[in-house]
UniProtKB/TrEMBL annotation:
<dbReference type="InterPro" id="IPR036291">
    <property type="entry name" value="NAD(P)-bd_dom_sf"/>
</dbReference>
<dbReference type="GO" id="GO:0032787">
    <property type="term" value="P:monocarboxylic acid metabolic process"/>
</dbReference>
<dbReference type="InterPro" id="IPR002347">
    <property type="entry name" value="SDR_fam"/>
</dbReference>
<comment type="similarity">
    <text>Belongs to the short-chain dehydrogenases/reductases (SDR) family.</text>
</comment>
<dbReference type="InterPro" id="IPR020904">
    <property type="entry name" value="Sc_DH/Rdtase_CS"/>
</dbReference>
<dbReference type="Pfam" id="PF13561">
    <property type="entry name" value="adh_short_C2"/>
</dbReference>
<feature type="domain" description="Ketoreductase">
    <location>
        <begin position="5"/>
        <end position="177"/>
    </location>
</feature>
<protein>
    <submittedName>
        <fullName>3-hydroxybutyrate dehydrogenase</fullName>
        <ecNumber>1.1.1.30</ecNumber>
    </submittedName>
</protein>
<dbReference type="InterPro" id="IPR050259">
    <property type="entry name" value="SDR"/>
</dbReference>
<dbReference type="InterPro" id="IPR057326">
    <property type="entry name" value="KR_dom"/>
</dbReference>
<dbReference type="InterPro" id="IPR011294">
    <property type="entry name" value="3-OHbutyrate_DH"/>
</dbReference>
<dbReference type="GO" id="GO:0003858">
    <property type="term" value="F:3-hydroxybutyrate dehydrogenase activity"/>
</dbReference>
<keyword id="KW-0560">Oxidoreductase</keyword>
């Protein structure tokens, strides 16, 4: 379905981004991986994608909190593949703290990574997409792009901001064959959520089991975590011809969380 296209998935060395990269490779796209992690494991992932799916796969270790690193990553990807056709802005991090104690450097980090990085990759990817008259941008939002939870000021602000960036991108790309949407997952069991469990337990004075069952899954009526593979399948659908008229939408995959 995506043969001949190139997909850049930020934060794809782990969790949701990795699942999206594997799915888009299975769909036939060349892949640009990005993120941090063990160099050997990343190379195993990259080489495995090439071998299993007969596509090309590259890796950039760019730190997306740094605009100049994003520019270098985009230039390198364009040099290797001619340009990015599918951009999945997925890299993100979380920090849990009451607002009055929220460390300023954590606020700045989360806004830079979860919001500003998507602005930079999008502005740099758009000229190629417009020239090709085809592009797909998937922004990894969250239920927290629609509703808030206490102690997550920076994350909630960044994800609401990302939803605004999606809508503006969707309008500017609409007549150029470019589509941009936000996927809004509920809780997906990944390393990011594992970390939050410990932090939330500390912030709320609860045990980790209480956080899992009474805080995280309390919000999710299905009482089940979303899987990274389900989110990846959703991203794949948004790149398919059937999704051609889905544009500028905040699309929930949250077990009913935001229906309440
Ligand atoms: P994760 O921690 O498993 O993966 C995060 C990825 O981002 C990793 O590849 C990491 O190396 C990369 N990364 C971190 N800092 C980076 C930086 N400065 N520059 C480049 N890459 C960097 O997280 P995840 O749970 O897979 O989350 C992925 C996205 O999905 C995030 O945007 C997150 O907000 C969103 N999300 C997650 C959940 C969930 O429950 N896990 C729910 C809703 C939305």
């Amino acid at each position: 379905m995506l043969a001949g296209k190139t997909a850049l998935i930020t934060g794809s060395t782990s969790g949701i981004g990795k699942a999206v990269a594997l799915q888009l490779a299975a769909d036939g796209a060349n892949i640009v991986l990005n993120g941090f992690g063990d160099a050997k494991e990343i190379e195993t992932l990259r080489a495995g994608i090439e071998k299993d799916h007969k596509v090309k796969a590259a890796f950039s270790g760019a730190d997306l909190t740094k605009p100049e690193a994003i520019e270098a990553m985009m230039t390198e990807a364009a040099g290797t593949f001619g340009g990015i056709d599918i951009l999945v802005n997925n890299a993100g991090t979380q920090f849990v703290s009451p607002l009055e104690d929220f460390p300023v450097e954590k606020w700045n980090l989360i806004i830079a990574l979860n919001l500003s990085a998507a602005f930079h990759t999008t502005r740099l990817a758009l000229p190629h997409m417009k020239a090709k008259k085809w592009g797909r941008i998937v922004n990894m939002g969250s239920a927290h792009a629609k509703v808030a939870s206490p102690f997550k000021a920076a994350y909630v602000a960044a994800k609401h901001g990302l939803s605004g960036l999606t809508k503006t991108t969707a309008l500017e790309g609409a007549t150029h064959g470019v589509r941009c949407n936000t996927i809004c997952p509920g809780y997906v069991f990944t390393p990011l959520v594992e970390g939050q469990i410990a932090d939330t337990a500390k912030a709320r004075g609860m045990t980790e089991d209480q956080v899992k069952n009474d805080v995280l899954l309390a919000a999710q009526p299905t009482k089940e975590f979303v899987t990274a593979e389900e989110v990846a399948a959703f991203a794949s659908f948004l790149c398919s011809p059937a999704a051609a008229q889905i544009n500028g939408a905040d699309l929930s995959i949250d077990g009913g969380w935001t229906a309440q």
